[in-house]
Amino acid sequence: MTVRRTTLGGRTHEFPTLVELMAKATPLRSGDVLAGCAAESAAERVAAQTVLADLPLATFLDEQVVGYDEDDVTRLVLDTHDAAAFAPVASLTVGEFRDRLLAWAAAGDETSISALAPGLTPEMVAATSKLMRNADLVAVGRRTRVVTGLRSTIGLPGTLASRLQPNHPTDDPVGVTASILDGLLHGSGDAVIGINPATDSPARTVALLDLVDAVISRYGIPTQSCVLAHVTTTLRAMEQGAPVDLVFQSVAGTQEANRGFGVTLDLLAEARAGALALGRGTVGDNVTYFETGQGSALSAGAHLGVGGRPVDQQTLEARAYGVARQFRPLLVNTVVGFIGPEYLYDGKQVLRAGLEDHLCGKLLGLPMGVDVCYTNHAEVDGDDTDSLMLLLGAAGCSFVIAVPGSDDVMLHYQSLSFSDVLTTRSVLGLRAAPEFEAWLARMDLLGDDGRVRELAPDAPAAKALLAAATP
Amino acid sequence: MAISVAGDDPWAVLRSATRARVALGRAGDALPTARELEFRAAHAAARDAVHSPLDVDRLRADLDGEVLVVASAAPDRATYLQRPDLGRQLAEGTTLPATGADLAVVLADGLSPRAVHEHGPGLAAALLERLPGWSAAPLVVATQARVALGDAVGAALGVRAVVVLIGERPGLSSADSLGAYLTWDPRPGRVDSERNCVSNVRPPHGLSYAQAADTVAALLAGARELGASGVALKDEGPALPSG
Fold it and tell me: What does the entry list as the binding residues for adenosylcob(III)alamin (chain B) (predicted)?
């Protein structure tokens, strides 16, 4: 193996392995410090970025970060690599690839950028993003087009969709319905109405699926439902004839971490096939939904790569997208501030990670959304999440997650509010998914200016929505 | 569905159906000032619960009997929050007496020192009352501590079981929730699946001291019979989230 080195400020920095080079080139975050793989000084970080910039992009096809023989994610990525799609950038270094992406983005050449996806590997996009500043992540992100659909279309230019997340600590049907109605009245829910169940019981999952399906049917809403139970629970629900639009699963970037989630690639393929067979789409056939997040592999102790060395959490996160893309998802989102300050300590780290994850997911061909969120023990507050949501809106993020008043009363963390989605759309001139926007208009919820109307408590549209909640 | 539109304010029905912050109204696209400030107040309480340090002298005064004080290897709050591994180790040079007792109770600040101040002494007393047949080591107060610090404390004290009463991660509506974590045969290297937990001790909103102490005492009796704690010890205690 080649020892890669560079001299910076009179000091020579050496990076004996690709794993160490990638980790030390990563902008500072607490999770890499915890894992023991972060750069030891600011100078070492820039030295690593300098070496990484000169690395041929094709290196990642020959040299692994996590071993091919040991890890099925690596095998999946390399065995499905599309050399023809890679050809336009095959001769570039990582630094040249960054420059090429920025040039295409500035010229508005979405086609050239978006066509690369099958030819890129997670490690390639992770490496490139490490050389980018936040504005670069935004500029390229907004020109990377990924459009998916089931009963609404996600990812069209000028749109920002939202997942309406009506969680309730006991899955109480009235409580869940109250949050759904509040979200719909704010124009949220075009990506999915997606509930994290309080327990993983199959009966509960079926009951919640029936509840949301009834709301969608009664109002004729062009969106989809999801109960974010374990994939095995959703498989059982499908066997029982439950109305499953989307199969959900949390995934991570190593075989070992996925084992910790209780999933294999075969299991995910089986679940996708089951949902496809139900034929519930109207505008598309993307029937899976995945969540990821930097730090998930480390928290499971499943973050080691070649030579038993710790892999940085951003590279592992991009590898999770390498898993997700095989199953043609409707939606993928990183849960960027959820896992805690030992992985992303403060607003600066969360902001950067959200933008990195969005771009890396998009470059790999994913309909990438972000749960812009934080816990109370992180150095993050509403000002930080405002900044991230607006930057993600500018970056063309496919969707964000929204909960009533930013307060998830089941998972005990703060995400965006329904109001935040309205603000982001207004400030940046973004719209809901077109099918959903047409529905808002039919419900008299859309103003002439394209904004979601604020209804008086006794407005006919509000009363109609509430009345329709009573069968 | 039991949502009705009777009455003058249909939104009141939504609000009464859940603790979620529904039907807050709007100021343009944003939240009205009063709702915004309510949210900030809840977040501020949670933040203060995380960052207000444990007042060891005050806690010691609230406890009966001899008290030992230890600190983890995390020197300050910022390090504690970013390095859970350090919060699981005792500070270098810590010495504790070997007691050979059956049980040690550790009061640990965790993520909410406020919870330990408010509920630690009450729960510790209620628990020890229920364990007449058990010899107990002196109470231990631990700062910048994670649950697993109890393993190192318990091993040093030479006890058969350790119960860690620790401040839980504050939520927007619960800044003072205490958790009790039981580990049989404590020693460094125990994993979370080898513990049992009773969480949300927070009268009057959560569990009372008596309820929590009954459960922990029953778990201790079960652990002594089984010679183990954690997933092998069924029913009362679910396996833990990591921490």
Answer: 147, 168, 197
